[in-house]
Every structure is written in structure tokens, then in C-alpha cells.
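Check this:
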Amino acid sequence: MQIYKVGGAVRDRLLDRTVSDVDWLVVGATVEQMQALGYRPVGADFPVFLHPKTGEEYALARTERKSGRGYGGFTFHASPEVTLEEDLVRRDLTINAMAEDASGQLHDPYHGKADLDNRLLRHVSPAFAEDPLRVLRVARFAARYAPLGFKVADETLALMRQIAASGELQALTAERSWKEIERALMEAEPQVFIEVLRSCAALEELMPELVHGPDTLAALRQAARHQQPLTVRWACLLRGLEPASVKALNQRFKAPRECQELAVLVGEFAEKADHALTLAPEQLLEILQRFDIYRRPQRFEEFIGACEMAALGHGQPSYPQADYLRGAAAAARAVDVKPLVEQGLTGQGLGEALKGERLKALQAYAQR
């Protein structure tokens, strides 16, 4: 039995990046041997075990064979006879197909270290084309390592085009696709994810609404630079699309509810926010009421963030509307309901009176 550290932990150590998760590969062992040593089986599709003390994942070396469409269309075979090289060859990129043994010696049968040095994202073998999810994974890695100068190798981009043309991307589940999209949007250069998908014709298969839609990548880049949350980044990407297109993208990938809501609200109110300094108090109140700023202040703050990122992306040096909108929200929130209740107002009457007081507060705010 031989145990190797594999994949991302090896890659990121060589890049002097922080290693967060460590994956281990076990060559020459059986399921029974692992269990006898106290490892707890957790793999549904192939043998994966949790270390009895550290809880880290240890997988038995395996091979795979294409047996159906999509990400899940594979048959796996794990046995003590499977070699390290046979396991590594099934991985996506050469930089992810390196291993370290217990002594720290690097095992690099597919020249991942050279590709790291040359800043190339290159596939390991032609079997890359069997898994359509790898198109999104490579685009995500391109977004992550773009600050280091990484590019997708021409031959790998050609294979990605082949996958896009095959229709296999349509076999991906919404859940698997969103997982990659979510992770890509939170990378250092998320706009690169979209650019790579466009360059291999995968964007028109996955997000055709963005192919001829407004250019939102500058806003997305600003959102990453300002460390905005996922909700804001998704809203930035979808800003300017027709409501039907926003709805289609939200539903196609089953985006989280918070992401869906903010994308819809940005589409509906972003233009008004851009003209906030000249809005009538009644219009301001309409926006604040629609966002339910009294119970959900964070959503309004994220809306302001999305609008600001778009402005910065269009080259504006600042976005004074942001502070103005925050001030308007604070003025409306400051209205005290207690005096109205003490007057005996209830139900619809209380609601109308409260709305009137908030409008007065906004009128005073606009005139300050």
C-alpha cells in the first residue's frame, strides 16, 4: 500500500498558494484493508474513506470508462492493480495530475510542473472530452489563476469547442452547473470564466442570453476587486438583460433564492438608482418599500453595491448615488411607529399613516 498527496494540494504548494483541502490517493489497497485500518467508507460511486483521526479523504486508485451522457456517465473500477499513472491520467488538467509521496518526492508523469511554470492549463489525455463538466472547470481555473498569467492551451480549447459542439453540455444538471458557476464567480477574475466559455462556444450553449446581451464583464470585474458577495456578482453579470432572460438564467441553473431576487430587483430598479439624486421623494419611497428595507436592509445594501460596481465598470470615478440612497433608507427607517399606534391607528390606517410619515421624512432629506 502506498499513499500519495494528489491534485490541488500539490498544485497550490508548487504555486506557493495556501493549501486548504488535501486529497489523498491510496495505491495497492483493498476496501477490506482500508476498513481494517479504521478508515470509514463514504464514497457512493467509488471507494472513498475518511481517515479515522484527521477526517481527511482517502480514495482508492481507480480507472474510469465512459458509459453514458453527461457528468455522471462513467463506470469506475478500483482495485489494488490500478497504478498511480493510471489513476492520474483520468484527471482533467496536467497541473491537477501530480502526486507527492510520503517523502515529499514529486510524481509528475504528465508534465504538470512544466505547465505550471509555463502558466498553461492543458488537458491530460483525450479522455478529457468525455466529461462536459470539465469545460466549466477549466474556465473556472482560468478565472482563478488569471492573476498569475495562466492561459488555456490551444489544444485544450479545441477539445472544449468539440464538447460544446457535441451537445453534451445540455446533459449537465442545474446543480452541477451552478456549483461551478458559483465557484467561478467568487474567483479573483470571474470575468475570465465568461470569456473562456465564449471563446470555446460554450457560452451560447449554457447562457445564450449573454452572448449578444450587454457587456457586463467590467461590472463583474469590479465586484471581484471590491470583494462583493455572490449575490452582487450574479446580479452584475445579469444586469441589463430583459426580465425574461433574467428569469430564464435564474431558473436554468436553480440559482439560490437570494441571487434570483437581487438579479430581478437590479433589473427593475438599477436605472432609477442611477438617477437617485434627482428622484422625487415618492419615487424614492417606492424603491425603499419594494426592497422592504425595514426587515431586509442587507438586500438593499447589496442592490446599491451592484449599481455601484456597474458605474465603476463603466469608468465612473465614484458613485455618489450610493451614499444618497443609504441616507434615504436611514431617514425612512428613523420614522417611529409608536406615536401612530398611541393615536389608536391599526391595520390599513396605520400602514397609510406610516407611509405618509416616511414620505415627509424623505421630503426633508431631499431638501437638506
In short: Residues 347-366 form the longest helix (20 residues). The radius of gyration is 26 Å.
